[in-house]
Design brief:
Layout: H1 2-9, E1 20-21, E2 49-52, E3 54-55, E4 60-62, E5 65-72, E6 80-87, E7 93-100, E8 117-118, E9 125-128, E10 133-137, E11 143-148, H2 149-152, E12 167-169, E13 172-179, E14 189-196, E15 202-206, E16 221-225, E17 228-234, E18 239-244, E19 250-255, E20 266-267, E21 272-280, E22 287-294, E23 307-309, E24 314-318, E25 329-331, E26 334-338, E27 343-348, E28 354-359, E29 370-372, E30 375-379, E31 384-388, E32 397-402, E33 412-414, E34 417-421, E35 425-430, E36 452-456, E37 459-462, E38 467-469, E39 471-475, E40 481-485, E41 489-493, E42 507-509, E43 512-514, E44 522-530, E45 533-541, E46 547-549, E47 558-559, E48 565-567, E49 580-585, E50 588-593, E51 602-606, E52 615-623, E53 632-637, E54 640-645, E55 650-654, E56 661-665, E57 674-682, E58 688-696, E59 707-711, E60 721-725, E61 733-742
Parallel strand pairs: 19-23, 37-45
Antiparallel strand pairs: 1-4, 2-35, 3-5, 4-5, 5-6, 6-7, 8-9, 9-10, 10-11, 12-13, 13-14, 14-15, 16-17, 17-18, 18-19, 20-21, 21-22, 22-24, 25-26, 26-27, 27-28, 29-30, 30-31, 31-32, 33-34, 34-35, 36-39, 38-43, 39-40, 41-44, 42-43, 44-45, 46-61, 47-48, 48-49, 49-50, 50-61, 51-60, 52-57, 52-61, ...
Length: about 750
């Protein structure tokens, strides 16, 4: 293993200030520990400590502090995800932050399928929750920043709830998700978002793949390529991708599978990458494969075209591996992986040949082995935990026991201790006074001359009257940050490939952009010029009270596939262009959901800030259909969905359907306009109420609310948005006369 360790030291993060098992894959990115003297046997009845919290990931440890991503509660609003900090030696709680789910499709308590990550420079800890809330905290529990990917960048939500782990690289923290944003990033795609780890400002966005067929939570694995800092990861479109870590530029991709690639990559030296999956193969009806890819040493540098690798890039392939989400481990020239049948396989890293297999359980989901001190610590989904000696030809299982609960994460190793997160608790075994051994610090790299510039934030959104400060950084030829520079000028910029030629209704003074008090909803880009160098940022002016839209000012200058005269919604609305039309209905122009893509039969689109609160959102809504089949239509107010459910004949209030969901009977007739008015009140003590009323548009507004839903844990803020659900894309919904106003007590 020594040659591999030395090669990985050259690409490992700098651990000069904070040491430990800082992310779920450990100090050398392979799921392997460098410690010795680890236990051959663990007694489930005699742990050092146990902490009760539900979870499905891997705890991480930094300078004696353990951080875990878990959740509490089983029903309704009592279910909350948590970022937990414990003393890694005693299990004593230091601090905790809890998060309520909102506007997600997460089902069956599929929460906390992921892990936090610690910054080796500052000790700060970062996490993405099941619904795309991204947070940063200091080591003593003080919040650094929080952002909502679903509301701010159009992150899509999936029932499986998997998020994986963020990655920290230099000044960046990188999150992985599927989004349908706006403009060039409006089409749904698997993307990586890199934020400044101290401020939460977006530094770059990368779209390395094609249309996703699944979500993916593969975490970046870092290396170098021709002097560039790069990372490798799997995507929801079935690819293995290579991306410039400083710039976000996709460099190459390889089509590995027909579904999402979730297993972690292994960098097996400077020119080999090992990847695995558990879904259908691209060239056969079989499922599952592990491949070793020859990393290309040259790629297009003068164009923005991504290099597409074909099968000739495979050094070897192994069809014995069927690992949907279980990630392999590399040690001593061998790759170890658990597969869906509950077996542990050993594969030669040079030839790809399966050397042996060991049956440990009935099946396997998510959980991954960890290597340390010549042993494999292997959790199995049914609760089996085995310690295996891979050097033996027989009788490899040194010890084995079974917990009553499922195991879905990987063990972590720190200071002679083994940590395991089950579905009900964090378990710790080993030496109380052990010493952690990690990778030595990588030698610092001195950046070169400034040859390009980068604007931060790379993307912004402002409400009327708000301002945004920008920074411009000089980068060297490899994209490494050299120093902050001052822009000579800022000017509107329209990319030549832009489908919509538009500019932001704001003005620059120095490096500060301000949206005036009467600024219109708008979107576009600006270019900062520094001498002969230039870089762009893009952004939106988004809605804030008071805001009204009746769609009458829109010109119907497009033609739908059905021959209708249509146009598109406002460009600043997240992800709306591919999901909605503006068209004529009943003598006026209205908003109507598109039915030409069944993937968008259910859609939520936000048009305001995730920081808004205490507002009324109202408008007119209608569903097409018959007495037998109708659609659902409504609004999103402060992270609550309020909708007329045509098929159920109810007015419903929900957040996540399994957390908050209440309704009252309401007679919804097809092709009939109704007025819908919504409001959320959050109280200082954390409680609150959702108010909604609906009535036929032709009638007078009733004095009483149609439904009032009391909340024990109210969302204190959230973006306004529109909602549609057309089962099987059969029946349209319509929205008109939207009004957003501030609450006046």
């Amino acid at each position: 293993m020594r040659p591999l360790i030395l090669s990985l030291f050259l690409t490992a993060p700098l651990f000069a200030d904070v040491t430990g098992w800082l992310d779920w894959r450990g100090p050398i990115q392979t799921g392997a520990s460098l410690e010795k003297g680890l236990p051959d046997e663990l007694d489930p009845a005699k742990p050092l400590w146990i902490y009760d919290i539900q979870g499905a990931g891997t705890p991480v440890i930094a300078d004696g502090l353990l951080y875990a991503y878990g959740y509490y509660g089983e029903k309704g609003e009592e279910t909350q995800e948590a970022l937990l900090c414990l003393d890694a030696v005693t299990g004593e709680k230091k601090w905790e932050a809890r998060f309520s789910d909102y506007i997600s499709d997460t089902v069956y308590n599929r929460y906390a399928i992921g892990a936090p990550t610690v910054d080796p420079e500052t000790g700060n800890v970062y996490l993405q929750t099941a619904n795309g809330r991204c947070v940063g905290y200091t080591r003593d529990g003080k919040p650094l920043w929080e952002l909502s990917l679903i509301e701010d960048y159009g992150r899509l939500t999936f029932p499986n709830g998997r998020t994986g782990a963020p990655a920290v690289f230099k000044h960046l923290v990188i999150f992985h998700c599927v989004t349908a944003n706006w403009g060039a990033t409006g089409p749904a795609a698997d993307r990586f978002y890199a934020f400044d780890k101290l401020t939460g400002e977006l530094v770059w966005t990368s779209t390395p793949g094609v249309v996703p067929v699944d979500s993916s939570f593969g975490m970046p694995v870092f290396g170098t390529l021709e002097g560039r800092d790069v990372f490798y990861a799997g995507t929801g479109c079935g690819h293995v991708v290579c991306i410039d870590a400083n710039l976000g530029t996709p460099l190459w991709r390889f089509h590995l599978s027909q579904g999402g690639v979730n297993a972690q990559m292994i960098l097996a030296g400077p020119d080999r990458l090992i990847a695995a999956h558990g879904v259908e193969n691209t060239d056969a009806s079989t499922s599952g494969r592990m491949v070793s890819l020859k990393i290309p040493t040259t790629y297009p540098k003068d164009t923005k075209e991504i290099l597409i690798l074909d099968k000739s890039a495979e050094a070897w392939r192994n069809d014995d591996i069927t690992a949907f989400t279980s990630s392999p481990v590399l040690a001593d020239g061998k790759v170890y992986s658990t597969i869906n049948t509950g077996e542990l396989l050993c594969v030669d890293a040079t030839s790809g040949k399966t050397l042996w297999r060991e049956k440990l359980g009935p099946d396997q989901i998510h959980a991954s082995p960890t290597y340390g001190d010549g042993k494999l610590y292997v959790p199995i989904f049914d609760g089996t935990f085995a310690i295996v000696d891979p050097s033996k030809d027989s009788d490899r299982v040194l010890s084995k026991f079974k917990l009553e609960e499922n195991l879905l994460g990987a063990p972590a190793i720190w200071a002679g201790k083994v940590y395991l997160f089950s579905k009900t608790a964090i378990h710790c075994w080993g030496e109380k006074d052990g010493k952690f051994i990690g990778a030595p610090a990588a030698p610092p790299v001195t950046p070169g001359e400034v040859t390009q510039v980068q604007v931060v934030p790379n993307e912004f959104f402002l409400t009327r009257g708000a301002s945004q400060d920008f920074k411009v950084f000089g980068l060297d030829a490899m994209g490494r940050r050299v120093k902050e520079v001052t822009a000579d000028s800022w000017a509107p910029f329209i990319p030549p490939t832009a489908l919509v030629k538009s500019t932001v209704d704001g003005t620059f003074k120095g490096s500060t952009l301000t949206a005036g008090p009467e600024a219109k909803l708008s979107a576009g880009a600006f270019k900062a010029t520094v001498g002969k160098l230039g870089a762009t940022t893009r952004g939106r002016i988004i809605a804030s009270p008071p805001y009204a839209e009746d769609f009458e000012s829109f010109t119907l200058d497009q033609t739908s596939p059905d021959g209708e005269k249509v146009t598109f919604p406002p460009l600043p609305w997240l992800g709306a262009r591919l999901k909605w039309y503006v068209l004529e209905k009943d003598g006026s122009q209205v908003l109507a959901n598109r039915l030409d893509n069944i993937l968008f039969q259910r859609t939520m689109n936000f048009f305001g800030s995730s920081q808004l609160h205490d507002y009324v959102l109202e408008g007119d809504v209608m569903t097409d259909g018959t007495r037998r089949i109708m659609s659902s239509v409504g609004f999103i107010n402060q992270r609550y969905l309020i909708a007329l459910i045509g098929n159920a004949q109810v007015l419903e209030v929900s957040s996540n359907h399994e957390r908050v969901k209440q309704s009252v009977k309401f007679p919804v007739k097809p092709n009939t306009w109704y007025s819908l008015k919504t409001r959320v009140k959050a109280n200082p003590d954390g409680t609150g109420t959702v108010f909604a009323k609906a009535w036929p548009r032709a009638d007078k507004e009733p004095a009483a609310w149609t439904i009032e839903v009391p909340l024990t844990k109210a969302h204190p803020k959230g973006a306004p948005g529109v909602f549609a659900f057309s089962p099987q894309s059969q029946k349209r919904v319509y929205i008109d006369n939207i009004k957003l106003t501030a609450v006046k007590e």
